[in-house]
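Page 42, continued from yesterday. The earlier attempt failed because a stray header line got pasted into the input along with the sequence. Redoing it now with the clean sequence only.
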Amino acid sequence: MEDRAKYALIGLFTFAVITAAFGFIYWLHGASGSKETSPYLIVFEGSVSGLRVGGPVLFNGIRVGEVTEMRLTDKPSEVAAVVSITPSTPIRADTIVTLEYAGLTGIASVSLKGATASSPAVAPPKSGGLPTLRAASTAGDMGTAVRETLAKADAIIVENQESLRNTIKNLETFTAALARNGDKIDKLVDNSSKLIETGTEAMGSFTALAVSLKKDTNQLAESLDKRTAEVSEGITKLTDTTTKQVTTVGNNLNRAIINIDKSITDLAKNPQRIIFGGSNDKK
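This time it went through. Structure tokens are written below.
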């Protein structure tokens, strides 16, 4: 019974976690989808090459929305795009709509430019549908972007043509100098190669010398160790011999002192021995 209760609690906990995860995802989706935007329909005359769903919508250079849908109209020369824009964006009837391209990359964005503040807001058509804006003609917009980019590049070249001319002249002078001194450069390269070879040989010789010197040093160290051991052994033997001799002399001297002391003591007790000799002790 306890195992069943344990498994039931684990199952309930797992179910609660899964339910909470789904609830969080639903809440997050609802929060992101509840952001208020205002849809507009923009009609373009001609090609809108480079414009994609999700592309940015800019108002005076500030992003205020994105393209949510693109479709064809009843007219073959027109293209319609549905955009979602922040409601606070001042879209007026005279708002200018164009396509802007990012240099030569071909990526397009919808550009809105404000006009007069007194102009009325764009209202939905009476027949129903979304508020509609008509863009300026897109014919040649990509070509215009290319021409503007090339014009900027040409302006930069013209502005720096003197520097470019001097750079080219210096390059020509340098090339001519290299051509005139080709033999010297070859000799310099050959000499450098020989120098490198000589340096390599010298390095090999130095390495061999270092190895030999190390070997001689090791032999010298071993010889010194042997000599030191021999000297130490000799000193040890000499020390032992000297110690023994000193000990022997000391013992002899000690015995002599004892005998002298004994003789003096006997003389003090019986001074007649000097005159009569022998012992005067009476029995």
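Notes: Strands lie at 38-45, 56-59, 62-72, 78-85, 96-101, 108-113, 132-134.
Reminder to self: strip header lines before submitting.
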